[in-house]
Specification:
With about 400 residues, the chain is mainly alpha-helical. Helices cover about 55% and strands about 5% of the residues. The chain has 16 helices and six strands. Strand 3 and strand 4 form a beta hairpin. The protein is globular and about 60 Å long. It starts with a helix and ends with a helix. Keywords: Hydrolase, Signal. InterPro entries: 6-hairpin_glycosidase_sf (IPR008928), 6hp_glycosidase-like_sf (IPR012341), Glyco_hydro_88 (IPR010905), PolySaccharide_Degr_Enz (IPR052043). It comes from Flavobacterium azizsancarii.
Length: about 400
């Protein structure tokens, strides 16, 4: 069995390597894809990674992108591949990320389609992959790119109480999503390059979002907060958006467990962040469906139109599993994580005859304001597009599988 597993693994890896270098002609891609067989003896994390590479020989092609770009969603998937490489030592996963980085960051360190003056917190997320790339390659382009992203945070507009705006086009607004986009990069950068001098400011981002978005009745966090209370979606008394969106809470929880990697045990804010994690975990656990999954609108259960959503469920599983492994959460959350992951693979994953995996029921995107206007209503969240193999569902699946060693 072990011998066959190694043989299957080697064959899959060799073919994927070939695919990665044969993107020039569509016919070559199609032929190579048909040849790859992904062994069911591999762990779920590798089966998903190889499925992604089979469909998209270049990382930037994920989500049917027609040209390369610097993007938070692609950064999420790339980060999961970096973590997979650390677990497996298989260079095919590292090279998939490295090739993407070399494509979107010039030799002089300029980041493709990046504009600091946009002050978009989403732009920071893909910067997480640069730390390890810089360490392993010593290529200065990655250091320069990291410094550019850190420079954005230095001048990024803030609420009056010190929280980063989600984007310049969304003034005085903090979204839960933004915590994952900005704080893990910020925390790692300040620890590795600035002796941790900004960790208090990192913690402040969580303090602000917790203070202003928590719902005392459910313990859940609303998707966003408008300090100015000017947006039509904002509650005129509290400034909060009207609903709970599972993926946004998932972003927040993943941000917490990832930032804690860089928060020293003796740091006075560490206990506070662990407390936040315990509070939101307790609230989220109450809304886990008997199936093991979570709904798109977290607290609305089987209300008409609501559905069991993949990405939020994966993020909760990841945060629970990592929280237990690191000692932040009680051991009981490991069972909830296991139940959630088992439900994901039995109810939301489909498998082709050649072993290729697909993740279903992924909310394509959700936000607030903008044009066309998004009002944050229940109807809005359930009507957003649902996709298969959307990047939001790919990266967190691998991360969750790795935490549970699946």
């Amino acid at each position: 069995m072990i011998k066959n597993r190694k043989k299957n693994h080697s064959a899959a890896v060799m073919l994927v390597c070939l695919i990665a270098f044969s993107v020039g002609k569509m016919t070559a891609q199609q032929t190579a894809r048909k040849e790859v067989v992904i062994s069911k003896d591999l762990k779920w994390s590798e089966r998903m990674a190889l499925s992604i590479m089979k469909r998209d020989p270049k990382l930037w092609q994920i989500d049917n992108n027609e040209k390369p770009k610097w993007d938070y969603k692609l950064g999420l998937v790339a980060m999961s591949f970096e973590q997979l490489y650390k677990k497996t030592n298989n260079p095919v996963y590292e090279n998939y990320v490295k090739e993407y980085a070399e494509t979107v960051i010039s030799s002089s360190g300029e980041i493709m389609n990046y504009k600091l003056e946009d002050y978009n917190i989403d732009y920071i997320n893909a910067g997480k992959i640069l730390f390890d790339l810089y360490k392993t390659t010593k290529d200065n382009r990655y250091l320069i790119a990291m410094q550019s992203l850190r420079k954005q945070l230095a001048t990024h507009p803030r609420t009056n109480s010190g929280g980063f705006w989600h984007k310049k086009i969304y003034p005085y607004q903090m979204w839960l999503d933004g915590l994952y986009m900005g704080t893990p990069f910020y925390a790692r950068y300040t620890v590795e390059f600035d002796k941790g001098k900004d960790l208090d400011d990192v913690a402040k981002q969580f303090e602000q979002i917790h203070l202003h978005t928590i719902d005392k009745k459910t313990g859940l966090l609303f998707h966003a907060w408008d300090e100015s209370k000017q947006m039509p979606w904002a509650n005129k008394e509290t400034g909060t958006s009207p609903n709970f969106w599972s993926r946004s809470i998932g972003w927040y929880m993943m941000a917490l467990v990832d930032v804690l990697d860089y928060m020293p045990k003796e740091h006075p804010k560490r206990k506070e962040l662990i407390q936040y994690l315990n509070e939101i975990s307790k609230a989220v656990a109450k809304y886990q469906d008997p199936s093991g999954l979570w709904y798109q609108v977290t607290d609305s259960g089987a209300k008409e139109g609501n559905y069991l959503e993949a990405s939020g469920s994966e993020m909760f599983v990841y945060a629970f599993a990592k929280g237990v492994k690191k000692g932040y959460l009680p051991a009981s959350y490991k069972k909830l994580a296991e139940k959630g992951f088992d439900a994901i693979v039995t109810k939301l994953i489909t498998v082709d005859p050649d072993g290729e995996l697909h993740i279903t029921q992924v909310c394509a995107s959700a936000g607030l304001g903008g044009n066309p206007y998004r009002d944050g209503s229940y109807e809005y969240y359930i009507r957003e597009k649902i996709k298969i193999d959307n990047s939001h569902g790919l990266g967190p699946f691998i991360l969750a599988a790795l935490e549970l060693e699946k």
